[in-house]
């Protein structure tokens, strides 16, 4: 991979379309490359990609790959091994966070239209050109029978960014009785503690959570995922005991099954991090504190 151009030699950025050539029967693309000062990783900028991808580690490749496949511009299928939020430091006085798909590739690609010059501060980042045989990564195969329809609603197949604005005004209320409940933090092995800190740092950068001085506190609990990673949840059993129950009439299962009579097409939906899509009313956010 080519080295980043020094700042003194960057006079004018050329934003023309990337050059594509063929070498030994393999199509090679010259893409803009940026350098992350914190991690030392070089990222290729590919506005033609639907997703951002990062090479999966050797340990991740030993696990069962995800059923979620990616497709390169040359028709190659790319196996994935889950998602990972990564923050990139480009010297623009703020971090950029993306949800990367951990894939069976050798290059890290940011599939976004990224501004390399801050219009307010006039700060800019060091960049260069690099060759790549993987580009134009999409979530939909070219021969998919419903490609046109899926392209029209591309957000359905793209990995979640967790930055999408909530499209409803429904908020969750947690009405309780009695004084606040608080539990001591549970001790964790070093690997779990490090993973928990990293997870909370990512969620704070995405605006999902914030530091709290609440008198409420529920202990943090770790649940292993199928891919070997950890899911961090709050143990809210003490909070549940003093919460006023919601007596909403849930439909009877037999009535729901009767509605399936004569139906031929069935769809199942799985929301990624569904709990984080539930907005808590501001007056009750202190009750959700974990430590």
TrEMBL record:
Keywords: Hydrolase
GO molecular function: aspartic-type endopeptidase activity
PROSITE patterns referenced in this protein's UniProt entry, alphabetically: ASP_PROT_RETROV, ASP_PROTEASE
All residue ranges annotated as the Peptidase A2 domain in the record: 41-75
UniProt name for this protein: Peptidase A2 domain-containing protein
Domain of life: Eukaryota
GO terms classed as biological process: DNA biosynthetic process; proteolysis
Species name: Anopheles coluzzii
């Amino acid at each position: 991979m080519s080295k980043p151009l020094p700042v003194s030699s960057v006079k004018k950025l050329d934003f023309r379309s990337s050059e594509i050539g063929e070498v030994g029967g393999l199509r090679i693309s010259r893409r803009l490359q940026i350098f992350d000062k914190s991690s030392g990783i070089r990222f290729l900028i590919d506005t033609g990609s639907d997703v951002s991808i990062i090479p999966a580690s050797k340990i991740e490749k030993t696990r069962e790959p995800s059923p979620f496949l990616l497709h390169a511009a040359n028709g190659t299928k790319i196996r994935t091994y889950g998602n990972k939020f990564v923050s990139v430091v480009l010297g623009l006085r703020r971090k950029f966070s993306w949800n990367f798909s951990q894939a069976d590739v050798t290059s890290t690609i940011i599939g976004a239209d990224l501004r390399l010059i801050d219009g307010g501060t006039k700060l800019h980042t060091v960049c260069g050109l690099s060759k790549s045989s993987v580009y134009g990564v999409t979530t939909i195969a070219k021969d998919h029978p419903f490609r046109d329809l899926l392209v029209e609603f591309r957000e359905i197949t793209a990995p979640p960014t967790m930055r999408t604005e909530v499209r409803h005004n429904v908020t969750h209320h947690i009405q309780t009785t009695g004084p606040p409940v608080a539990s001591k933090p549970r001790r964790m092995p070093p690997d779990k503690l490090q993973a928990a800190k990293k997870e909370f740092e990512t969620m704070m950068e995405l605006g999902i959570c914030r530091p709290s001085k609440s008198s409420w506190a529920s202990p943090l609990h770790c649940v292993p995922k199928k891919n070997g990673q950890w899911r961090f949840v709050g143990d809210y059993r003490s909070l549940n005991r003093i919460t006023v129950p919601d007596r909403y009439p849930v439909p009877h299962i037999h009535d729901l099954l009767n509605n399936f009579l004569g139906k031929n097409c069935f769809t199942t939906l799985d929301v990624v991090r569904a709990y984080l899509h539930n907005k808590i009313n501001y007056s009750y956010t202190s009750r959700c504190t974990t430590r």
